[in-house]
Amino acid sequence: MLEDILKNIVEMEEHEAINKAKEYLEGGGDPQKLLEVCRDAMGEVGKRFEQGEYFLSELILGGEIFKGIMEFTLPKIKSGSVQKIGKIVLGTVKEDVHNIGKDIFKVFAEASGFEVIDIGIDTPEEKFVEAVKEHKPDIVGMSCLITAGVTSMKKTVDKLKEAGLRDGIKIIIGGGRVDESVKEYAGADAWADDAAKGVRLCKQLLDWRVD
Amino acid sequence: MVSNAKELAGKRYARIMAAINLEEPDRVPLRGFGGDIIPAYSGITQHEFCYDYEKAIKAIEKFLTDFQFDWAGSGITGLDGRVFSVAFSEYPDIAANTTFITGPMHDALGDKYYRYPGREISEDASPQFIGGTFMEADEYDQLIEDPVKFVAETVLPRACRNLETPRQAMATMVRLGVEFARYGAAGREIGAITAKLGYPSIPMGGAYAPLDIIGDFLRGIENVLLDIRRYPDKVKKAAEALVEPIVNYALSYKQRGLKWVMIPLHLNEYLSPKLYKEFYWPTLKEVILRLADEGMKAQVFFEGRHDAHLETILELPKGWGIAYFEKTDVVKAKKVLEGHTCVMGGIPMSLIVGGTPEKIEEYVKNLLEQVKPGGGFILSANVGNAPRETPIENITALIEAVEKYG
Ligand code: B12
Asked: Is residue B399 domain-resident?
């Protein structure tokens, strides 16, 4: 059954995936196991995307199926027993209102075990600073789809430095308008213009925390 | 006033046309950009640039005087209004007026599609198209049945606060008409300025990919992508139904004597080749072909990465128009489309904003070595909007590099 669910998610069979997941839980299945299977499925979707087999529409539908299953699965898992591997504060930068890429990255990060605090779009620098103070994340993620947002990222990093918070976090930037030179310019630690790679990099950034 | 304006314009025109006709021009033409840098360069706010046409025209004149591209790419700011053009598509004298919705038109409509500086956002922010969801999934049948009626009578009253009731709509339309006249006059004034500065005139109208009308203005991008999976037949039929009004709207430009339409694409990058060929391309292709039958050419802006769909362009007749690329590698695109389609693009805006004059010269030299031979190429920044912090010396460096290596 779990194997079927995995296959249905990966093959984008929304109805089958959701119905079987419901059936599985109603039949006394273990929600924790279901969660793990869904995560594996999302990992596979991300992999296919990185390999050029899947496109953005598959990432969005995959995310939609995942969210659909989580809606009735998460409440069945004892709070506290869901292991989080790290915490990310995520927002689209000031002057930029594109949210789709950020939302896809969020689902994939959550599916691989991160807790993600989404602070929205067109996010002022100060809001990032406040969110870091409040949530004490391991990683700050900034999404940027317009060239004007590049300056916003730099300003945000500068504000985090001024507030003395920069050394306690890692910063990853993403979205269609970032690359190595933008990373350098903004003063971030990593960049990704694809969600699956972004999640992989976030896991690597966590290793730094252990040292 | 440039003393030899006419001659200069003629030379530039021939240069651009040679590239479009897949020939080798005297030098590779450079298409200009504009956007946020224009008000910044003149020290006026975005609000002034969007609402005070007199100031805006002066700022545009200053920018175009100081930065001489081959093809002027600057105008009064307006945001995509193709959904209104669909609604007006039965009235060729009106439909073209809403290709772009300016700040004052936005005020008249009270719409939820846009945010303008000094209104919903700060005086110095760049104007924003934000879109939204103004149609439910169970309304596809109405869209298919009569797209113009559905858009005009159901969608727009939801999307525009000032079109909610018929009497509001009456007043709104009168105000909108006044703004059409003001915008038209400003456009003619800019036309006169560009002519006296020696820029050629290649006026462009508009068309749109049918599925993008649904994504950008009716259902929202994410919803339409999910709809493709959930209600594939309805989405397909709806896109087909929109071909007719889009073609009618685009042809209204023909009546005005224009030969070109501009089509920016949005959903292309999201779709796998399979979905692209099934849901997006057939209706876009039909729009382009029907306009070609009427003697009109298209400049299609392939936003994002179009790599996976490049070959489909070869299905269009040779010389159909200009393929403008954003993130697709233009060297690769030119190889695929050589002798078939004029390719435009090549300069990342991030390089102009974050690079140095030396880096820009180096980049242009390298790129031109690869794309110049054989002609059929127009150099352009990969987007038309330069942010306000764009270093002036980098714009000059770009123009000089093209003069040197083009
Ligand atoms: C869809 C779209 C819109 C939609 C947005 C809908 C929405 N709710 O998000 C609408 C129509 C509303 C829109 C509006 C505008 N847009 Co727009 N838009 C696009 C378009 C076509 C696709 C963007 C997108 O969603 N891509 C898909 C997502 C999934 O990709 P992505 O963001 O790269 O995300 C992936 C990765 O990068 C990564 N990722 C994303 N975020 C993060 C974050 C982290 C931390 C990590 C690790 C990874 C990560 O994961 C994702 C999945 O792999 C692009 C062109 C293009 N194809 O890129 C233009 C584009 C981005 N838009 C552009 C512009 C100019 C605008 C407007 C300013 C237009 C205007 N004048 O009004 C307005 C926005 C106003 C503003 N200030 O922001 C320009 C930007 C140009 C530039 N270089 O500055 C583009 C490039 C189009 C163009 N070529 O002109 N747009």
From this structure: yes
Give the per-residue pLDDT at A211. Answer: 46
ipTM: 0.89
Q: What is the reported pLDDT for A79?
A: 67
pLDDT of residue A80: 65
Does the Cβ of A62 fall within 6 Å of ligand 1?
no
The verdict on residue B187 lying in a domain is no
Q: How many folded domains does chain B comprise?
A: 1
Can you give the CATH number for the domain in which B213 is found? 3.20.20.210
- The whole domain housing B262 covers 2-78+196-405
What is the reported pLDDT for B121? 95
Q: Tell me the per-residue pLDDT of A29-65, one tens digit each, with 9 for 90 and over.
A: 999 999 999 999 999 999 999 999 999 999 999 999 9
| Alpha helix ranges (H) inside B4-155 | 5-20, 37-42, 46-51, 53-66, 82-87, 92-95, 103-109, 140-145, 147-149
Q: What is the Å distance from ligand 1's center to A172 Cα? A: 18
**How far is residue B333's CA from residue B335's CA, in Å, rounded to a whole number?**
5
Dist. CA A29–CA B80, nearest whole Å: 51
Cα A61 to Cα A64, B84, B200, B212, B233: the distances in Å are 5, 30, 46, 18, 18
- Whether ligand 1 lies within 6 angstroms of the CB of A137 is answered as no
B188 domain-assigned: no
Q: Which domains does chain A have, with CATH numbers?
A: 2-76 (1.10.1240.10), 86-210 (3.40.50.280)
pLDDT for res B402: 97
> Of the candidates A55, A61, A148, which has its C-beta nearest B226's C-beta?
A61
- Identify the pLDDT of residue B375: 96
| Interchain contact, A55 vs B128, CB within 8 Å | no
pTM: 0.94
CA of A98 to the centre of ligand 1 (A): 5
* B86 belongs to a structural domain: no
Q: To probe the interface with B, which of A15, A56, A102, A104 has the most B CB atoms within 10 Å?
A: A56
